[in-house]
Amino acid sequence: MSDFATARQKMVDGQVRPSDVTDIRILDAMLAVPREAFVPASQQALAYLDLDLDISEAGSAKRFLIKPVVTAKMLQAADIGETDKVLVAGSATGYTAAIAARLARRVTATESDPAQAAKVMVVLAQLGLANVTFSATTAADGDPAGAPYDVIVLDGATEVAPERLYRQLTEGGRLVGVFATTKPPRAMLVTHSHEDFGSRTLFDATAPVLPGLERLPAFVF
User: Fold this and answer.
1) In contact, 100 and 85? CB cutoff 8 Å
2) Which fold has domain 3-204?
3) Torsion-angle region of residue 94: left (phi > 0), alpha (psi -120 to 50) or beta?
4) What is the pLDDT at residue 59?
5) Which backbone phi and psi does 193 adopt, to 5 degrees?
């Protein structure tokens, strides 16, 4: 077994399973998808650690690979079905989109940097994940042209209510993400039913805030 395969097994057995992730499809997907392929070569040794890994290049906007446990628990709460159409908002590395692609019929990922999206598409093609496409938009904007979606996953945190994304959910659709609208931040599940949106707390969690979903600074006299 390669060093990365061993690290992948340890990640699942030591981080993900003990965090009450019991969906075998998610566990199998995380064992199958090489997390190190979605980060720069200089950071591959860090890919399986329990941290938010900054993959940004010098002078570019911040991009992160979020913690494995947060990804796994949010995807489990989203309850993605084999026929579901999924939007991964702010999928900088493409890793969350790759995991979702093994669970859903179709995945669209948003990334505002075309060069970063192109890099990810090469990796996805090498892995044979042909059911993922990228939309060159921000996490906040989502993908109105491709809506509605059965599931929307925020690949990071939001400091504001992502209203535009709510409107891209199908009836019965689910949105999961880390909401830094409260202290402490919490992963939340938002559901769309009968033209209304309900939410419930899943677990306390932290994640880097996605570009475009930051809280506007308050005006001070």
Assistant:
1) no
2) Rossmann fold (3.40.50)
3) left
4) 62
5) -150, 125
CB atoms under 10 Å from CB of 115, counted, come to 9
Q: What is the pTM of this model?
A: 0.95
What are the structure tokens assigned to 5, written together? 């395969």
CA distance 221 to 9: 54
Q: Where are the domains of the chain?
A: 3-204
DSSP letters, 196-216, are EEEEEEEEE---PBPTT-PPP
The kind and range of the H/E element at 187 are strand 186-193
| Interatomic CA distance for residues 62 and 207, integer angstroms | 13
What span, in angstroms and rounded, lies between the C-alpha atoms of 193 and 175? 12
pLDDT at residue number 57:
75
Rounded Cα–Cα distance for residues 147 and 167 (Å) = 9
Strands 53-54 and 64-65, by their bridges, are antiparallel
Structure confidence by residue, pLDDT tens digits, 51-93 = 999 998 766 677 899 999 999 999 999 999 999 999 999 998 9
